[in-house]
Amino acid sequence: MALEKDALTMAKLRGGIRIVEGERFAWPRALSERLSLNSGVCFEGENVYPRTDWRTPGSDELALLTGGNADACDQLVLIRLSERLVERWWELAASHPESSVLAAGAFDVYAGEVMEFLSFKQVEFPSVCRFEARITAPGLPSIHQTVGGLTALQPAGRLVGGINLSDEESALVILNLTETQLSDLVPTLPASASLSEKARVFLTHCSDYPQTRISLAPGEGFWLPSTSVIVDGDNRGREQIDVQLVIRAA
Question: How many CB atoms within 10 Å of residue 91?
Answer without folding.
Answer: 12
